[in-house]
Design goal:
Family: Belongs to the YggT family.
Largest sheet: none
Mean pLDDT: 91
Shape: globular
Strand content: under 5%
InterPro entries: CCB3/YggT
Organism: Halothiobacillus diazotrophicus
Protein name: YggT family protein
Radius of gyration: 18 Å
Structural class: mainly alpha
Order of helices and strands: HHHHHH
Pfam families: CCB3_YggT
Low-confidence stretches: none
Length: about 180
C-alpha cells in the first residue's frame, strides 16, 4: 500500500477495529461499574456483543464484576489490529514489539473511551440534553471517574470543572505512557 491510497485505507481499518473495541470495552465497563442494564442503549450494546461473549463465558466465567470474556475479546481485537496495521504498512513485527504495541494501544483505547465519554457528557450537559438514555449511559460510564475529582474540586459558580480536570489528566497520562513505552 504505497502512495496516497495507503493512508485512507489504514485509517478506515483502524477506525473499524477501534469501533469494535470500543463497543466491547463499553460492555466490560458497564458490568464493572454496575450500570443500568435496563437502559435501551445499554441493551443494544448487550445484544451486539452477546453473540461473541456468550459462548466465551462458558470457558471464562465472570469473576465478581469483571467480565473476563469481554476483556479477552477486547485484547484479542487490539492485538489483531496492531498486527494488521503493521502488516498493511509492510513492517515486520516481533513478538515483543507486538506485545508492547498491544499494551500501549490497550491503554490508549481505554483512556480514549473515557476521554470521549466525558467530553460527550459535558457537551450534552451544555446543550441541556440530560434525560436521554444515551446520556444516562455516559453518566454510568463516567461517574466512577468524575466523583473522586468532584469531591476534591467543588463546583465554581455552578460550573463543574471535574470533566475538564479528568480530560487534562487523561491527556497527561497518554503522553507520559507513550513516552515511556514507545520512547
Amino acid at each position: 500500500m504505497n502512495g496516497s491510497f495507503g493512508d485512507p485505507v489504514l485509517f478506515l481499518v483502524r477506525t473499524l477495529f477501534e469501533l469494535l473495541i470500543f463497543v466491547v470495552l463499553i460492555r466490560y465497563f458497564l458490568q464493572l461499574f454496575r450500570a443500568n442494564f435496563f437502559n435501551p442503549v445499554t441493551q443494544s450494546i448487550v445484544k451486539l456483543t452477546n453473540p461473541v461473549l456468550s459462548p466465551l463465558r462458558r470457558i471464562l466465567p465472570k469473576t465478581g464484576r469483571h467480565d473476563l470474556a469481554a476483556l479477552l475479546v477486547a485484547l484479542v481485537l487490539i492485538v489483531l489490529m496492531v498486527w494488521v496495521l503493521a502488516s498493511m504498512k509492510g513492517l515486520p513485527i516481533s513478538g515483543a514489539a507486538l506485545f508492547v504495541n498491544a499494551l500501549y494501544f490497550t491503554f490508549l483505547m481505554v483512556t480514549d473511551l473515557f476521554f470521549w465519554t466525558i467530553l460527550l457528557r459535558a457537551v450534552a450537559s451544555w446543550i441541556g440534553n440530560t434525560q436521554s438514555p444515551a446520556v444516562a449511559l455516559l453518566e454510568d460510564l463516567t461517574d466512577p471517574l468524575l466523583r473522586p475529582i468532584q469531591r476534591m474540586l467543588p463546583p465554581l459558580g455552578g460550573i463543574d470543572l471535574s470533566p475538564l480536570a479528568v480530560l487534562l489528566l487523561i491527556q497527561v497520562l497518554q503522553i507520559t505512557v507513550g513516552n515511556l513505552l514507545l520512547g
